[in-house]
Amino acid sequence: MSATLRLACLDAEAPPLFSLWTPEHGRTGYEPGVAEALGAELGRPVEWVRVPWVDMIPAVQRGDADAVLCGQGITADRQAQVDFTRPYAIFHEGVLVRRGADIHTPEDLVGRKVAAIENSTNMALVETFTGAVPVAFGPGSDDVYADMLAALLAKDVDAVVDDDVVFVPLGTTHPDYELAFTVQTANKWGIAVAKHRPDTLAELDGALGRLIDSGRLHEVWKEWLPTLDYPFGGSQ
């Protein structure tokens, strides 16, 4: 049997991106679907290395995992630490608020506390909102997304910024939250690989390219993200 493909990810409930790991079902969602397709393309079984958010990149640098396939926007800061494959997703960013908060534009965030994951593309966007008060989440959390939603509900923060895909399950009728607005940032997400492993990078990037060309990635997207526009063209 071919060597196991070990992929680092946060163990959290964030549908439709991914679910909590269970012994019966493993992980499900768009990113696990991408991983399953990659594994099939390469003939390698997939193993999830479940670590806190802040330990995902260190895990691949240490060799505890072969790559990170978990919400990694391709940023200059991360590119200084790891190398990335071509994107497997492109997402915009949403601003979630409590229902009835009367927040509809960036200008409405002046003086408001706005949560995002520390050192993320989401936090970079928060820092562009003039007058907003950034509140970083992440270090030490087992489920940073749940922590941010809880803080929003408890009125410890006034808004949460995350990629639009994360807010899909909340829809437009959630009793507690509503999407204030979306910023068309087109954040590219890639698979992160340690810089000392160019062969692994080339293997994963090549397989991902084949999944895009064959339409297999589009099929995974339609299964898990049917309400979002597929970003790579084609209608295979």
- Kindly report the CATH topology of the largest domain: D-Maltodextrin-Binding Protein, domain 2
Number of strands: 10
Helix share bin: 25-40%
The tally of domains stands at 2
Strand order of the largest sheet: 7-6-8-5-9
Produce the secondary structure layout.
Layout: E1 5-9, H1 30-42, E2 46-50, H2 56-62, E3 67-68, H3 76-79, E4 82-84, E5 89-98, E6 113-117, H4 121-126, E7 133-137, H5 144-153, E8 159-163, E9 177-189, E10 192-194, H6 198-214, H7 216-224
Domain Solute-binding protein family 3/N-terminal: 4-228
Keywords: Signal
Organism: Mycolicibacterium wolinskyi
What does this structure look like?
With about 240 residues, the chain is α/β, with parallel strands linked by helices. It folds into two domains: about 5-90 and about 185-225, 3-Layer(aba) Sandwich (D-Maltodextrin-Binding Protein, domain 2), CATH 3.40.190; about 90-185, D-Maltodextrin-Binding Protein, domain 2, CATH 3.40.190.10. Helix content is about 30%, strand content about 25%. A five-stranded mixed β-sheet has the order 7-6-8-5-9. A three-stranded parallel β-sheet has the order 2-1-3. Strand 1, helix 1 and strand 2 form a beta-alpha-beta unit. The longest helix has 17 residues, at about 200-215. The chain is globular, with a radius of gyration of 18 Å.
